[in-house]
């Protein structure tokens, strides 16, 4: 999709719909391309279980209550 500066101002809904369809949007200024808005891919191949923080305390023998109490204590 190609959109001018005026389109960005008055037809942003159409621009967002194009991005939802995974289309890139070229921004035109005086008929020349000034930039491109690239659509972000919505789905990821990674599972939440692949995240480094998932299950980070499974090997510790510390309860969640103890961890939270340690986090909430004053710094000084």
Q: Rg from C-alpha positions?
A: 23 Å
What summary fits the major beta sheet?
Answer: 3 strands, mixed
| Average pLDDT, all residues | 84
Helix content: 25-40%
List how many beta strands DSSP finds: 3
Please mark out the parts with pLDDT under 50 across 5 or more consecutive residues, or reply none. Answer: none
Distance between the termini: 56 Å
- How are the strands of the biggest sheet laid out side by side? 1-2-3
Q: List the total number of helices.
A: 3
- Class derived from helix and strand content: alpha+beta
| Molecular shape | elongated
N-to-C series of helices and strands? EHHEEH
Instruction: Classify the beta-strand content into a percent band.
Output: 15-25%
Compose a concise summary of this entry.
The protein is of the alpha+beta class and 76 residues long. It is built from 3 helices and 3 strands. The chain is 32% helix and 18% strand.
Features:
elongated, 3 helices, single chain, 3 strands, alpha+beta, three-stranded mixed β-sheet, 76 residues
Describe, in plain words, how this protein is organized in 3D.
This protein is α+β, with helices and mostly antiparallel strands and 76 residues long. It has a domain at 2-37. 32% of the residues lie in helices and 18% in strands. It has a 3-stranded mixed sheet with strand order 1-2-3. The longest helix has 9 residues, at 12-20. The radius of gyration is 23 Å and the shape is elongated. The model has no long low-confidence stretch (mean pLDDT 84).
């Amino acid at each position: 999709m190609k959109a001018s500066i005026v389109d960005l101002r008055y037809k942003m809904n159409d621009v967002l719909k194009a991005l939802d369809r995974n289309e890139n949007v070229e921004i035109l200024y005086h008929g020349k391309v000034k930039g491109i808005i690239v659509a972000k891919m919505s789905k990821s191949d990674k599972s939440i279980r692949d995240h480094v923080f998932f299950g980070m305390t499974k090997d510790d023998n510390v309860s969640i209550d103890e961890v939270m109490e340690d986090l909430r204590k004053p710094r000084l």
